[in-house]
Amino acid sequence: MALVVICGQPCSGKSIAAVTLAETLGESETKQSVRIIDEASFHLDRNQNYANMPAEKNLRGKLRSDVDRSVSRGDIVIVDSLNSIKGYRYELWCIARAAGIRYCVVYCDVDEAHCRQWNKERSDRGEASYDDGIFEDLVRRFEKPERRNRWDSPLFELYPAREGIDKSSPVISEAVTYLTKTVDSRTQDVRILQPSIATQAARFSEANSLYELDRATQEIINAIVEQQSLGGAISRVTLGSELPPIEICRPIGLPELRRLRRTFVKLMGQSSLSGPPLPTDAESAKRRFVDYLNREFGG
Fold it and tell me: What SS3 state is found at 121?
């Protein structure tokens, strides 16, 4: 498994880079299975995604949630989006670290003039493009990746305006090698991120209980994120007639929800050693997690 973050200015060739990398990985000796997570999968107009800060924050939350769900499936996950904020790239790096997988950033380095020209050409052809005001705002706020940052490393830099992007590009080949190389005790040029104590999930002896707990808690997190994304202040998250609501007194971000979920899973694993066994059905797991969240939120 691995997480690849595609990064670059608007209209800098990121989607071409993502598809090219995915196809090259699929044709490699390992025949690696790849999943691309992009903005188009949410069926939203790109100008709507970046029309204002709440819309942009909502988009990043959806992408992040999809990544969090996907990194455990065994695929190489490619995040095809602007990924222009270094704090957001750090959050994606944390997801990779918690999963104990490889991570890298592929940066499409294109000057603003070419990006602006390509955006105009897309508009002239009637293809999806950015409005001028949104384009200029995104360019202004872009935070270039720096390889000295752990969340931007290793960094593979492409130059689409100067060199183009195809399967024979040396940088694409380097990235494929990094993502597919067999790791053993002698391997030094490939880094597998290691979970910290705080991010390691407790290991349970009952596989079915672990599966139900993992799935149930993720469904609760998804419900909270979804209801908060509808806009407006909410004080209660409803989960159907079978479960009590979750009382909240402030907006709860995904990083905090993820932290609470990890803590809950760890506590459940510890308590099962000397107390009640882990729940073996989804409803019981959900009810315990809801009770835990209400205690944490003071509900």
Answer: helix
pLDDT at 117: 97
Per-residue pLDDT band for 241 (boundaries 50, 70, 90) equals confident
Q: Which two tokens stand for residue 167?
A: 């399967």
d(CA 200, CA 127): 44
**Amino acid in position 140:** R
**Cα–Cα dist 269/204, whole Å:** 6
Taking residues 80-101, what's their average pLDDT?
A: 92
pLDDT attached to residue 184: 59
Q: List the alpha helices (DSSP H) in the chain.
A: 14-26, 46-49, 53-70, 86-99, 112-124, 132-141, 160-163, 170-180, 207-229, 254-271, 282-297
- Per-residue tokens: 183: 């790791």
Question: For position 29, what pLDDT does the model report?
Answer: 85
pTM of the predicted protein model:
0.66
Contact 95, 68 (CB under 8 A): yes
> Is the preceding peptide bond at 279 cis, omega within 30 degrees of 0?
no
Backbone torsions φ then ψ of 288, nearest 5 degrees: -65, -40
Q: In 3D, which of 172, 178, 171, 177 has the Cα closest to residue 192?
A: 178
Q: Phi and psi (nearest 5°) for 280?
A: -105, 0
